[in-house]
Amino acid sequence: MPIRLLPDQLIDQIAAGVVIERPASVLKELLENALDAGARRVDVTLERGGIGRCTVRDDGAGIAAEEMALALSRHATSKIFNLDDLEQVATMGFRGEALPSIASVSRTTLTSCTGDGAAHTLAAASEEGAELAPAAHPKGTTVDVRDLFYNTPARRRFLRTERTEYAHAEGLFRRVALSRFDVAFALTHNGKRVLDLAPAHDREQQEARVAAVCGNAFLEHALYVEREGESLGLRGWIAQPTFSRSQADMQYCYVNGRMVRDKLLNHAVRHGYRDVLFHGRHPAYVLFLTMAPSRVDVNAHPAKFEVRFRDSGAVHGFVGRTIEHVLAQTHPGAHSGAAPTELDQGVTPDAIGQRGLASDEAPPHAAINRGAGTQQRMSLGDTRSRLEAWRSLYGAPAATAPDLGGATTSAVAEAPVRPAADDDAPLGQALAQVHGVYLLAENKHGLVVVDMHAAHERIVYERMKVAWEGGRVTAQPLLMPVRLAVSSREADAAEAATDELSRLGLALTRQGPQSLLIREVPALLAHADVEQLVRDVLADLLEHGASNRIQQAVDELLATMACHGSVRANRKLTREEMNQLLRDMERTERADQCNHGRPTWAQLGMSDLDRLFLRGR
Ligand code: ADP
Ligand code: MG
Predict the structure, then answer these.
(1) How far is the CA of 196 from the centre of ligand 1 (A)?
(2) Per-residue pLDDT tens for 456-509?
(3) What is the DSSP annotation of 210-278?
């Protein structure tokens, strides 16, 4: 066949193949256009899941009569004009291909008014002779998209049921609605108003919107995040670790107001949650990252769902550390949020309570299979000898090891035992022990139940981490340096990160274009599989520009040691020891959940107790 230029409509349809996958993609483009036009209010009307109709009406700047046809032409945009603009684009759109793409695969009508003159409407019919006609419309624009894919049967066959398409569209609407608190949004489907969101200016109003979008349970278990760095800012809400999900379905992430699904950011957040999340569970969060537009490349994906950061290592570190810092507050009395688990019926179905665990795909015994992940990663050797090594490295067992063991009872007994006021002692006063497993206490709300082993494990673990932080520079030279064959990219990355790695106790030298020598490792990891560890570190460096493997490996080792070192079930504690455990929990970061992410305590309030006994109040 001879080479020919493609007809315009086909070019648009090909472009539509990339950006317009389903009604939700139409909605995304139209919403972004409305926001770019400075809308204060956006009304969305969908019919038949958005396949029959997707209409977006805004009160933004509008389109001048003489530009109506241009708006529907390929590569026509009012948002950028040169390469400089592209490199620091602050609008959602800039590619100038959404409207023509949409118009090429549907029956689209554009109606608009700039406020200066009369309103006008243009049917973007692919048939000849579409003409601008007068219309009635207040300032702003309405884009009406009907019969999606009516002229592209192959695409239409890829659509799912109306119900599924609607679910995608509504999910998209919710995502966008969270991106701009200052704008009002309404959604109507098949004539029924589904969501109506007023502008949210202060934090309280914003939290109401978050609750409307993510559910009340999320907000009740959310911690507020706000941090301004030198060049990065992070704000939002993250769920307590015990309010985790079986799917990664409640993760809302925005970069400069643009919703993204970004591997690097997800990874950084997960890292922040690393030792507080139950195995196989997913954190829930709404996070807004801000930075200078020139530090992020948004032209990395046709639907603009992915971005590229100029300094991905710094972004990863900033986000991970911020989340970690906020989660450190998850201990009794540290935040006004709900207890990590509640025993009443109103509890979130997805929080890990007795019911949550039972209904999860992860079998409950995964939680009890302590340290399994650690063993996969490195040969641990005998935990007992690790514990010994730990003691010799970091000094007195009292500072690190369990202080509830029989040998140290006297030390514990010296701790102040006083009937503390409830505000100092959110977990209250110990009452008794049940089968050596649970501890009961009374606080101002009612009864507190503590899983003794789980709680103590966290306390020991946090102490060990603090001690390790203090002595982390302890690097141990290897008797026999290990030679490692790597790719030249990996060797380059290792060389570039030499200082950072040596701060973590890992000394690597380059031996040749594709060879590294491991000379020193963190003392605590001397018996680990250092080769695998270094390979994982290098893979991280290449992918994320940073690596947390060393910290992770150390954490896992410490967690295993903490587990072995902490009070086992069936040990009788004295009343003083029990109270000491409660006070330690209140002082220990992340004490709301054990090292495996299970809750350590639960509150049975007076009303819960009353309900049990049918006592009216
Ligand atoms: P892009 O958003 O990448 O510029 P689009 O095809 O989505 O490309 O839109 C083309 C142009 O049409 C925009 O640059 C803008 O000038 C105009 N436009 C589209 N939607 C609206 C709207 N809702 N309000 C005002 N102008 C709009
Ligand atoms: Mg656009």
Answers:
(1) 24
(2) 989 988 888 887 777 655 678 888 889 999 999 999 988 988 887 887 778 999
(3) HHHHH-HHHHHTEEEEEEE-SSEEEEEEEE-TTS-BSSS-SEEEEETTEE---HHHHHHHHHHTTTTS-
Tokens of 579: 């109270």
Residue type, 316: H
d(CA 76, CA 121): 18
Which of 12, 33, 91 has most ligand 1 atoms within 8 Å of CB, for mutation? 33
pLDDT per position as a tens digit, 500-549? 788 777 899 999 999 999 998 877 777 777 888 888 888 888 877 777 77
272 conformational bin, left if phi > 0, alpha if psi -120 to 50, beta if neither: alpha
Q: How far is the CA of 409 from the centre of ligand 2 (A)?
A: 69
Cβ 79 under 6 angstroms from ligand 1: yes
User: Is residue 25 within 6 Å of ligand 1 at its C-beta?
Assistant: no
- The H-assigned helical ranges of 381-451 are 383-394, 397-400, 409-413
Looking at the CA of residue 91, tell me the nearest atom of ligand 1.
2
- Kindly state if the Cβ of 61 falls inside 6 Å of ligand 1: yes
Please tell me if the CB atom of residue 77 comes closer than 6 angstroms to any atom of ligand 1: yes
E strands, 85-244, in order? 107-113, 119-123, 133-135, 140-146, 184-189, 192-197, 222-228, 232-239
